[in-house]
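protien #1 (seq + structre)
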Amino acid sequence: MNRRRVITGILLVAGGILACWVMGAPWFSHQPAHDRRKCAEWSLDLLSPSHSTRAAATRALQSMGPDAVPLLVRQLHRRESWLRSPVLAFSSRLPVNWRRAFIGFWQPFRARDERLAAATALALFGAEAPVDPLLEALRDPDRQLASRVATALGGCGAAAVPGLTAALQDPDPEIRRLACYALSQIRRPAAPAAAHLAHLLSDSDFQLMASAAHALTTIGPAAIPHFIQALDHPEPRVREKAAFSLSQFRSSATNAVPALERLVDDEDAAVRWHADLALRAIVPRRFVEFGARHPSPEF
């Protein structure tokens, strides 16, 4: 009797896994291929620890061109089958070696890997990747997936800026940080988001503030007025970050000199230090005066 129950259980698990695999496996759908391997299989190779495997997958996917994009978008939104929980729960009753061998062979439940692979692959297509599905995936609770989606959005260029600007106002600070990262990859075409990025310079989350400052810096000289305005912020850490960011622009930030000169006598030592550093970068003749006037503060 027990033997019959075990055999019946094995058949049920096998049938469930096979049905799940047949219904959900992306390689059963029509899709572009390269060297007799389909797009979904190549995309999973992007997750390999082997550099040569990832490089081969990159070449294969790029050779497929825009035809691969619709499939990758569907793959990005793939969800685990409802059979996952009951099948895995029942298979836990099987002998360990049988369970490992069977599930290892069929690999029926890997929707998360397929989604990570799709996000990674879409980043290869730059502006050809569709913005709206990526913006939706940016809010996924899986932070590793959302990070890869942010990279793909950064490659979309100006088309992604309106959606990313809206994401800067999301209540989740992690989504705001990822939007800052994506905008920093877009660089100068992200200028329409400058005012919203400047607003984040006063955020209480230091990492988010730093991400916003970096994204603003990548926009170029158009961001300078926002940093100059931040020099008058009541929070010392905001003034410090603005002064440091202005130093990155060097001679392009000469308009900031009067405001920076006021900060060399700021009550906060770190602000004074970064203001003088910025002046030295913007107006090199101040280099001689720098060391004598303001020794390094103790932080």
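ok now protien #2
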Amino acid sequence: MGDSMAQYDREDKNTRRDFSLGKYYVDFVTSEGHYFIGYSAQMNWLGVEVNYRATIHHPSIDGVKNGPSLSSRDAPVLDDSILTWRAPKLGFDGRWQQLSSADSHVLHREDDGLVEWNCVQPSAHAQLTTASGNTYEGLGYVEYLRMTITPWHLGLRTLLWGRFVSEIHSIVWIVWQGKHPLALLICDGKKIANPRVSDAKVQGDDLELLLERGDTIRVGSIGETLVSKLPSVLKSAPVEFLGGREEKYVSRGKLTYGDGSSHTGWVIHERVSWG
């Protein structure tokens, strides 16, 4: 049976507090490098429930609205290997068909809560029909993040995140610098040892991914790009956190293994910095 966020929102008595966030991130890039990114989140904080749906997309993808929509309807629905997202208020009907196995990691846990990352579709074939009647296709990615700790509680100085998808391989990385350092690099469902990540290169045992910078998707503070569009209760987050600078890009990636074999694909990646 299909479900939306409920599949990943398992109740945990040790992590239930006055904050919870469940967020889908979905994307795809066409063969020409034209990107679509969608966010669908439900957050509970200080007794207020907020639903949030929004997109960022290349100008050539016609008929889609950026939003946000604060409706509790129109959330993505995951049914086995297929995620569908019908969002008439944002002007699209999308479908992501899983191409590789899902993965899941608890990135951080403490008495007050946890951060759980679910890589629902490390690689997918995506198809999007928009309100203009046009249809777009490409290789994509889907993840679901569950948090019962406020993001500013993590004490991050820098967050690096990215995903690479080719016809054969997929890579995703998460790096935290700050109070709780973390470096996670996953290739084709396997955790890669000795990850080293920069804005231009991702390396691990037996692989190297080079990034050729393409379009800038978004640059700005968290307060400017996200929280300014949400209800006032969320604006009570610490000023230092809201001042974090987000940089998000789409790049061409070349993956090379130790045996010399190489593969190309599109990369969506970001850096968020505080302080």
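Confidence is low (pLDDT under 50) at residues 4-16.
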